[in-house]
Specification:
By secondary structure, the chain is an alpha/beta fold. Helix content is about 45%, strand content about 15%. Pfam families: Pyridoxal_deC.
């Protein structure tokens, strides 16, 4: 309400010094909370820094454009059609949108398949092979998007080996931690960021798990000059002594649009109101509740955990074995998927709880995500009772059926 009511338009430093200075301070605060290397911070003195974008897609687009401009300066603009970007098939679909907007050819987008064997994380060997195949046909590797906490299963890509491979080929590495990055304010989860020191940029969404309202995507870059060089606009009407001195930050040159909201005020209020300890406890409580739900699922032999739980989301389903026992016949994955899809439809239609699904490795999984501020253990137990009740009804019907309908 404050940021909207004040209506500060802080596109340049001189338009609102307070908005700019507070943003740089808040971004350093949060960077230190998640233990980002000093090279990403303004206070680190290495040319890095942070900016509040609107969404992850904007953060991805800005970094792709920065990487693109950097590369085209070396190889010539006529070679833009040779640029290739990489990600896993679990990377958020907004990345593909950002790639499309950036001018990279759609056929030069590589969504590398993941498997259950790697817990649906991007395999370094698969990345290496894909890069080498592209180089053989004269293409130029440009950009890799690694994910900490994928949308479907919250899988974590192994940053260290991926960054080592990317370094060999001069590839820009962006780390998308939109959901799970907030968990890294807790020391026990910071190991998921091992290797981020070798990446080029990193982002998380404070509007997902840190109380901040939409939009509040935090983006840090190690070389802010590469970002501003690609996005700077300097018309005469915006020139002023502060900008010309190069001693201040003009955030218009760190983003897609020119105008911008006073986003830092939202995040500053959250950090000042709750403090680090309370925010850590908030996130830990959600992860403990997810563990509680995971135990409930594991205790019911009719269900199975479909993917490893890393944070506060549990992927589960009614198991194939359960359906085979009811039908006394073999069931294929298609039938199992159909049953679980129908189960989720019934659960959501009751109006007591709402869950979403994902298709991972050809398997339909139900996603139980905990993230709302007022969620408590009684809500988890209530949700599990709703799930079991609907499963009971469907499995009872199945006993008298000859196939899954």
């Amino acid at each position: 309400m404050l940021s909207a009511g004040l209506n500060v338009v802080g596109f340049s430093w001189i338009a609102s010094p307070a908005a700019t200075e507070l943003e740089s301070i808040v971004m350093d605060w949060l960077g230190k909370m998640i233990n980002l290397p000093k090279t990403y911070l303004f206070s680190g003195g290495h040319g890095g820094g942070g900016v509040l974008q609107g969404t992850t897609c904007e953060a991805m687009l800005c970094t792709i454009v920065a990487a693109r401009e950097q590369m085209l300066e070396k190889i010539g603009r006529e070679n833009i059609d040779k640029l290739v970007v990489y990600a896993s098939d679990q990377t958020h679909f907004s990345f593909q949108k950002a790639v499309k907007i950036s001018g990279i050819k759609p056929e030069n987008f590589r969504a590398i398949p993941t498997t259950k064997a790697t817990e649906f994380a991007l395999c370094p060997e698969s990345l290496s092979v894909t890069i080498q195949e592209d180089i053989k046909v004269g293409l130029i590797p440009l950009f890799l998007c690694a994910t900490i906490g994928t949308t479907s299963t919250t899988a974590v890509d192994p940053l260290k080996p991926l960054c080592e491979i990317a370094k060999q080929y001069g590839i820009w590495v962006h780390v998308d931690a939109a959901y799970a990055g907030s968990a890294c304010i807790c020391p026990e989860f910071q190991h998921f960021l091992d290797g981020v020191e070798n990446a080029n940029s990193f982002s998380l969404n404070a509007h997902k798990w840190l109380f901040s309202t939409l939009d509040s995507c935090c983006l840090w870059v190690k070389d802010s000059n590469s970002l501003t060089k690609a996005l700077t606009t300097t018309p005469e009407c915006l020139r002023n002594k502060a900008t010309d001195s190069k001693l201040v930050i003009d955030y218009k040159d760190w983003q897609i649009s020119l105008s911008r909201r006073f986003r830092a005020l939202k995040l500053w209020l959250v950090l000042r109101t709750y403090g680090v300890s309370n925010l850590q406890n908030f996130i830990r409580s959600h992860i403990k509740m997810a563990k509680h739900f995971e135990r409930l699922v594991a205790l019911d032999e009719r269900f199975e955990i479909a993917a490893p739980r890393n944070f506060s989301m549990v992927c589960f389903r009614v198991s194939p074995l359960t359906l085979e026992r009811k039908l006394k016949a073999f069931v294929d994955e298609g039938q199992v998927n159909k049953f679980n899809a129908k189960l989720l439809e019934f659960i959501n239609s009751c109006g007591d709880i709402h869950m979403t699904h994902a298709m991972v490795g050809g398997i339909y999984v139900i996603r139980f995500a905990i993230g709302a501020p007022l969620t408590d253990y009684r809500h988890i137990d209530m949700a599990w009772n709703v799930i079991r009740t609907h499963a009971n009804v469907m499995l009872k019907r199945l006993r008298y059926a000859t196939s899954i309908v």
